[in-house]
């Protein structure tokens, strides 16, 4: 409905660009690390409609002119009220919409579903000869922000003083584009029209407005669909001003340029982030592999240590048991002798186990340091960390300290077990006739005690080693990364960043297509 003042092709490309901008803004808002910069301003600029402010005195035919310009025909509902007297003392804004009306103070906004309102808004001001003081400021505010001012005169009368005072201000102070509409030409003679045109040109020249744009119109002829209404010329001017040529094309190109600048910035950010994360991912994967291999290596080594300790301990316990049984069969003062043997066993066992643990752990530490050196010599690790050996040395130092702590804890736990040696076995002196019976009973209790102590030792070794290995893994992870958990999450987001980059690149391609379309001669 209505006659379009903007080319269909422009509306199509503008719609594409608007959808792209909204989608792009949504993407930025959902990813806070992307630069928003002034893209909100671009959206505001995009949504700013090209506006016409229509000015003229009462009964100059403004309302009829506007209805006809928008394509309202005879028998259809008028948008702007037409009558013999002043129809409104308010500012009336007409935009494309669903037919609702909003009133706010001295302004009325009317929404009409007309093709002719696509991309524009028309602002109708109260008659110049009826503008009260409060209206004058509002009217001037709209004039300052207008894209085009249409000054409507009755073809018979262009001589009103207030009109020309306002026109002079518009031209000299506001420096705005103005076109002149000589309306109701059907009511004026050719001589009256020529006189009015000549006078209008003279007055314009006096205020330094050369070659004014003047259009003769008849709303009556247009509304009745009769020829020579003059509206085709007005529409062609508007169409060329905003719909198909330089101004609209320039506006779209400016918006495209601003969006592209933002897109390029964010594309660069994503490229850098992806490149960095690709390197960090290789580093991360190397660390994960190192830690897995390291855990396997340590498991094997500590299993060997555990076997050595258990075998040695079992062997010594068996020797101690045999000595105790022999005392029962052959000696007097069995209790004192056994207590002496147990004390000697604990002392020797503690020293020897300490040496064995220390020797094995020293071997593992040396092997760990060699493995760490190899890890930090890897190309992707060097690429991630540079040549600085700080982290390498820090990790080796941490490993040293951690193994020292582990050795101390392990020795303490084993000594606790050693100190419990045969505590549950009662040793008493008996006469010779009872020794054989007693020795069998003691042997059974000694075997039970040996079994219990071996279980305790095995549990202690397993618990301490598992705790140590888990703690060491965490320690190594946190030494290799500034923040291991955050780093893992960032690596997991790599695919998300790649998807974002794909979308950003697609925006770039769409911008090129739209710009190419609006630059073509057929636009």
TrEMBL record:
<feature type="domain" description="G">
    <location>
        <begin position="52"/>
        <end position="182"/>
    </location>
</feature>
<dbReference type="GO" id="GO:0005525">
    <property type="term" value="F:GTP binding"/>
</dbReference>
<dbReference type="InterPro" id="IPR006073">
    <property type="entry name" value="GTP-bd"/>
</dbReference>
<dbReference type="Pfam" id="PF01926">
    <property type="entry name" value="MMR_HSR1"/>
</dbReference>
<dbReference type="InterPro" id="IPR027417">
    <property type="entry name" value="P-loop_NTPase"/>
</dbReference>
<dbReference type="InterPro" id="IPR051943">
    <property type="entry name" value="TRAFAC_Dynamin-like_GTPase"/>
</dbReference>
<protein>
    <recommendedName>
        <fullName>G domain-containing protein</fullName>
    </recommendedName>
</protein>
């Amino acid at each position: 409905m209505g006659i379009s003042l903007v080319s269909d092709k422009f509306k199509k490309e503008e719609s594409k660009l608007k959808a792209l901008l909204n989608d792009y803004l949504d993407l930025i808002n959902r990813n806070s690390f992307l630069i928003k910069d002034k893209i909100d301003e671009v959206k505001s600029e995009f949504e700013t409609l090209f506006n016409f402010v229509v000015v003229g005195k009462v009964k100059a035919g403004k309302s009829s002119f506007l209805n006809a310009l928008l394509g309202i025909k005879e028998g259809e509902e008028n948008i702007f009220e037409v009558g013999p007297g002043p129809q409104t003392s308010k500012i009336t804004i007409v935009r494309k919409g669903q037919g609702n009306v909003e009133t706010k103070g001295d302004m009325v906004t009317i929404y009409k579903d007309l093709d002719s309102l696509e991309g524009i808004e028309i602002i109708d001001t109260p008659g110049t000869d009826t503008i009260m003081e409060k209206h004058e400021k509002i009217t001037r505010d709209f004039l300052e922000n207008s894209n085009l001012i249409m000054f409507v005169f009755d073809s018979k009368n262009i001589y009103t003083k207030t009109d020309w005072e306002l026109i002079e201000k518009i031209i000299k102070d506001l420096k705005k584009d103005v076109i002149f509409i000589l309306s109701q030409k059907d009511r004026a003679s050719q001589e009256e029209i020529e006189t009015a045109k000549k006078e209008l040109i003279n007055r314009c020249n006096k205020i330094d407005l050369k070659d004014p744009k003047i259009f003769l119109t008849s709303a009556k002829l247009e509304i009745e669909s009769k020829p020579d209404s003059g509206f085709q010329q007005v529409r062609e001017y508007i169409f060329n001003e905003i719909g198909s040529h330089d101004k609209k094309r320039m506006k779209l190109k400016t918006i495209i340029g601003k969006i592209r600048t933002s897109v390029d910035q964010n594309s660069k950010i994503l490229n850098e982030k992806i490149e960095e994360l690709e390197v960090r991912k290789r580093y991360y994967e190397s660390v994960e592999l190192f830690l897995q291999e390291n855990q396997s290596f340590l498991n094997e080594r500590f299993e060997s240590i555990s076997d050595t300790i258990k075998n040695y301990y079992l062997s010594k316990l068996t020797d101690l048991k045999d000595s105790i049984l022999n005392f029962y069969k052959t000696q007097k003062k069995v209790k004192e002798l056994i207590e002496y043997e147990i004390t000697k066993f604990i002392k020797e066992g503690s020293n020897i186990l300490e040496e064995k643990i220390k020797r094995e752990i020293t071997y593992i530490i040396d092997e760990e340091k060699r493995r760490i050196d190899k890890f930090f010599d890897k190309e992707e690790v060097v690429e991630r960390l540079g040549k600085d050996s700080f982290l390498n040395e820090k990790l080796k130092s941490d490993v040293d300290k951690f193994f020292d702590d582990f050795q101390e804890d392990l020795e303490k736990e084993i000594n606790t077990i050693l100190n419990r040696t045969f505590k549950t076995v009662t040793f008493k002196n008996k006469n010779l006739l009872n020794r054989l019976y007693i020795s069998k009973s003691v042997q059974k209790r000694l075997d039970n005690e040996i079994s219990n102590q071996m279980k305790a030792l095995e549990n202690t070794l397993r618990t301490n080693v598992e705790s140590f290995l888990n703690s060491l893994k965490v320690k190594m992870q946190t030494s290799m990364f500034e923040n291991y958990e955050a780093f893992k999450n960032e690596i997991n987001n790599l695919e998300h960043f790649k998807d974002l980059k794909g979308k950003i690149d697609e925006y770039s391609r769409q911008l090129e297509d739209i710009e190419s379309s609006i630059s073509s001669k057929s636009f």
